[in-house]
Amino acid sequence: MWRRPLLAVVNGSGRNLMGQLKGQWLEVKVTDRAGQESDKATILCLGPPGRFGIPKRDEEFEILMGWADEGLVTQGRFRFQKANARGAPEDGERIALDFKAADFVDDLKKSGRQHYDDGTTFGDLVRREAKAAGLAAVVDPGLDRMTLGYRLRWDQSAIDFLNEVADDVGGTIKPAGGKLVAMKRGGGTTGGGQALEPILIRRRRSFGYDVDIEPRPEAGHVAAAWQDERTGRRRLTKVPTGRDGPIVILPHPYRSEIEAREAAKSQAYERSNNSGSGYFESPGLPRARAEAPVIASGFGGFIDGRWTAESVEKVITVRGAFTATVNITAGDEKKGQKGQ
């Protein structure tokens, strides 16, 4: 049964841009990306440039995609950034309208100086930086009360500083939904701790896939050093990985035992994450989100099982096609091992 895709690109006054571009647009692409990377969207149209006007810079639109039997699903709010016009004898003339996530406010990019005393929680730090940028903050409960050592932001943008701190505690920072959201890396949850809806991928002959498996030497423990201020000595905190293998020691010391432990956990996850990567193509997935778990089936062997979505690209074309490409990493499930 053929399914009909739905599409709307609506501005603040309720005007659907797709009506204005009728007979001119070719495809709409939305890319949802993990971590600090800003989501983006592109509307590709027929040229030449004189055929229509472009939106005003920073004009805001909500993009919605879906299927007629399920309804529209919001993909986020985006601001118009630029138009690119091009032409070639073999391809004809095209105009690309580029948008970026409206949540990424300029104040997050401004350099500044700020310090946080020893004992500040990760949640408090995120909320203070978010408030300074005019945003509310949502912090995963598992990260919120994590205690940090002394932190100094020196001539550094808020978003770079926040991601530096988040890396040390196994988290990611991303503006989304008008808020600054702190999530566990690869945790498969929203900033509020709710589980992201799994992305179900099954093998279809009419859709492609490309998956690399790179089995890595396993580590039994990952260790990180930290400075014990009470004794003045450097100490080592070890985190078991649940696998067999030698101990791996991180090269740089950390400010506290808590930060050392979280850094070791984060590195253990990254080592697993690198054991496999690739992408799956699928019929349109309007609810799919980056960081969500991906469940693959019907491929067999080392591909079936659980992965993590690194990014999700969704495309609707004027010809009525709605497709998705889910870029994946292995997450915390080891790939290419015996018994997989």
Q: What is the CATH architecture annotation of the largest domain?
A: Beta Barrel
How many separate structural domains?
Answer: 4
Mean pLDDT: 85
Uncertain stretches of 5 or more adjacent residues: none
- Main β sheet profile: 12 strands, mixed
Q: State the end-to-end distance.
A: 35 Å
**How many helical stretches?**
5
Helix content: 10-25%
> In what range is the share of β-strand residues?
35-45%
Summarize the structure.
By secondary structure, this protein is mostly beta strands. The protein has 5 helices and 20 strands.
Structural commentary:
The chain has four domains: 5-101, Thrombin, subunit H; 106-184, Phage tail protein beta-alpha-beta fold (3-Layer(bab) Sandwich); 199-215 and 274-329, Bacteriophage T4, Gp27, baseplate hub, domain 3 (Elongation Factor Tu (Ef-tu), domain 3, Beta Barrel); 221-273. It has five helices and 20 strands. The protein has 340 residues and is mainly beta. Helix 2 (122-132) packs antiparallel against helix 4 (158-168). The longest helix has 17 residues, at 257-273. 36% of the residues are buried. Strands 1, 2, 3, 4, 5, 6, 12, 13, 17, 18, 19 and 20 form a twelve-stranded mixed β-sheet that branches. Strands 8-11-10 form a three-stranded mixed β-sheet. Strands 15-14-16 form a three-stranded mixed β-sheet. The protein has helices at 17-20, 122-132, 141-144, 158-168, 257-273; strands at residues 5-11, 25-33, 40-46, 60-67, 71-88, 92-101, 111-116, 136-139, 151-157, 171-176, 179-184, 199-202, 209-213, 221-228, 233-240, 247-249, 276-283, 293-297, 305-317, 322-329. The chain starts with a strand and ends in an 11-residue tail after the last strand. The mean pLDDT is 85. A hairpin with a 3-residue loop joins strand 5 (71-88) and strand 6.
